[in-house]
């Protein structure tokens, strides 16, 4: 893997790295400003497929972080990018919100309930039994099964909520079909992100807070990996896994303090 002072492009997770419960984490604003002022290519990644990049840019702005929408890469965008490469101008039946439907429309896909090429399941807070039943029947009729991300639960103020992976598991149980998951930990999401900014794995780093998605996908994509301890991971969590990130930092503020020309830490 590249040393940190050899890194030319950056990918970073959003929740747990730059923000926590809509509050900017220490050093996040300064790091983004550092990259912007230096003209450093970067993308903010999220497995959340509910919102469009414009929505997420506004959310980050309200937290005090300036991230233009073109600097945000979601699992919805990665899914649309992948499907466009498979069947340009294809069709899909979608369970999800505006994030995934907008991404697919912009990729040239048509939304339909009649013999679609794909059934695509993304994040939503309004899962319906009718839509899930329709998805199951379309898959049994020959559609291919795609899921934006594997997360089984999502956070809320009142506790965990069932998320994309949980609904996908229900559909798998009913059909016997396993989905192809595009978002993290599939390294394809990182490769599509690097393609967007013209980056190469040998000089790109990934910052994340989860060993089971950010770090493993970064390793498999050949990136320099940095785990920050401002999200869900602690030392006990790190010790559970047989792989290790290249660096473990208290938070992104440590990247602001370490100027590229002075840093040689791995």
Automatic annotation (TrEMBL):
Name of this chain's protein: HAD family hydrolase
Keyword DNA damage attributed: no
Residues annotated as catalytic: 13, 15
Keyword Metal-binding among record annotations: yes
Gene3D superfamilies from the UniProt entry: HAD superfamily/HAD-like
GO MF, one example: phosphatase activity
Annotated binding of substrate, by residue: 184
Cofactor list: Mg(2+)
Record-linked NCBIfam families: HAD-SF-IIA (TIGR01460)
Binding annotation for Mg(2+): 13, 15, 209
Free-text cofactor note: Divalent metal ions. Mg(2+) is the most effective.
UniProt keyword terms in alphabetical order: Carbohydrate metabolism, Hydrolase, Magnesium, Metal-binding
GO cellular component terms given for this protein: cytoplasm
Top-level lineage group: Bacteria
Similarity field: Belongs to the HAD-like hydrolase superfamily.
InterPro entries noted in UniProt: HAD-like_sf (IPR036412), HAD-SF_hydro_IIA (IPR006357), HAD_sf (IPR023214)
């Amino acid at each position: 893997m590249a040393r940190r002072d050899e890194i030319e492009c950056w990918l970073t997770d959003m929740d747990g790295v730059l923000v926590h419960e809509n509050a900017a984490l220490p050093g996040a604003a300064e790091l983004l400003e550092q990259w912007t002022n230096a003209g450093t290519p970067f993308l903010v990644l999220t497995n959340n497929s509910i919102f469009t990049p414009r929505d997420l840019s506004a959310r980050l702005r309200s937290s005090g972080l300036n991230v233009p929408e073109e600097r945000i890469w979601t699992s919805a965008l990665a899914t649309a990018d992948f499907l466009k490469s498979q069947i340009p101008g294809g069709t899909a039946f979608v369970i999800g919100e505006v994030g995934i439907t907008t991404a697919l429309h912009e990729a040239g896909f048509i939304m339909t309930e009649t013999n679609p090429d794909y059934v695509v399941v993304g994040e939503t807070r309004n899962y319906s039994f009718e839509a899930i039943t329709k998805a199951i029947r379309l898959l049994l009729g020959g559609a291919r099964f795609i899921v934006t991300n594997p997360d089984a639960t999502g956070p809320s103020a009142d506790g965990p909520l069932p998320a994309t992976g949980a609904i996908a598991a229900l559909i798998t149980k009913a059909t016997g079909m396993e989905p192809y998951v595009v978002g993290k930990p599939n390294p394809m999401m990182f490769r599509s992100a690097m393609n967007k900014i013209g980056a190469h794995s040998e000089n790109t780093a990934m910052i994340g807070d989860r060993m089971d998605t950010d770090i493993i996908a970064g390793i498999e994509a050949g990136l320099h990996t940095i785990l920050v301890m401002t999200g869900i991971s602690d030392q006990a969590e790190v010790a559970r896994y047989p792989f290790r990130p290249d660096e473990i930092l208290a938070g992104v503020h440590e990247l602001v303090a370490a100027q590229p020309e002075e840093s040689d830490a791995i």
